[in-house]
UniProtKB/TrEMBL annotation:
This is Uncharacterized protein. The keyword ATP-binding applies. Pfam families: DUF4443 (PF14544), PH0730-like_N (PF22167). It comes from Thermococcus sibiricus (strain DSM 12597 / MM 739). GO terms for molecular function: aminoacyl-tRNA ligase activity; ATP binding. Residues 94-185 form the DUF4443 domain. One of its GO terms (biological process) is translation.
């Protein structure tokens, strides 16, 4: 799959997922455009494609998920969580995402993917035996970064989960780079209609 920004389409699968997460509550096009830092024309195209798949409905108060859209979001959330803000890292906004039942991975490759996707940095962690650890050496996160370890306690973690934390110059780059890493791990399991939208 080619993740590079091309002239067309003007949005990525990461933008689609952020939009679906946003539309759990009604939002106007302008609001979505600001959240994703994409032009209103691009958002119009994206929303049109989601509507054509019956994933969203449009009303006076804005766009929101349809019943089918909620089911698709539930299917995505079975694979990985929505990004959640955690305390800042190196003065950058940071977001964490929990990947359920992750396949084999190399932390360094996942970090590189995040940085290639506009993150300033990334941390790959595991939740094992009730503790968040660095997978390379099983060192507990709380020993080096207790504030982040405390923040992660808010997440619904289960044994074996992978936690991706990314940080970036702005909120949307942090959010999308975290989603990007989750997609590298679970992309083939994303509902097929979402994957088709990117073609």
């Amino acid at each position: 799959m080619d993740w590079k920004r091309g002239a067309y389409p003007e949005f990525e699968i990461e933008d689609i997922l952020v939009t679906l997460f946003l539309l759990k509550t009604p939002k106007g096009r302008k609001q979505i455009s600001e959240e994703l830092n994409l032009g209103e024309g691009t958002i119009r195209t994206l929303l049109k494609k989601l509507a054509a798949l019956n994933l969203i409905k449009s009303q006076q108060k804005g766009h929101s998920l349809s019943e089918k859209g909620f089911k698709v979001v539930e299917a995505i959330l079975d694979l990985f969580s929505e990004p959640v803000e955690v305390c800042s890292i190196e003065d950058f906004l940071a977001y964490a995402i929990v990947v359920k039942d992750p396949p084999q991975f190399k932390s360094i490759e996942l970090r590189d993917e995040a940085i290639r996707f506009f993150a300033r940095g990334a941390m790959i962690l595991r939740y094992l035996n009730g503790e968040v650890i660095f997978p390379e050496d099983n060192r507990p996160l709380k020993e080096t970064l207790p504030e982040i370890a405390e923040d992660l306690e808010k997440l619904p973690l289960e044994d074996g989960d992978l936690i991706v934390i990314t940080w970036a110059e702005n909120r949307i780059d942090a959010v999308k780079s975290a989603i990007h890493v989750a997609l590298v791990l679970k992309g083939e399991q994303i509902p097929v209609e979402i994957r088709k939208l990117e073609e």
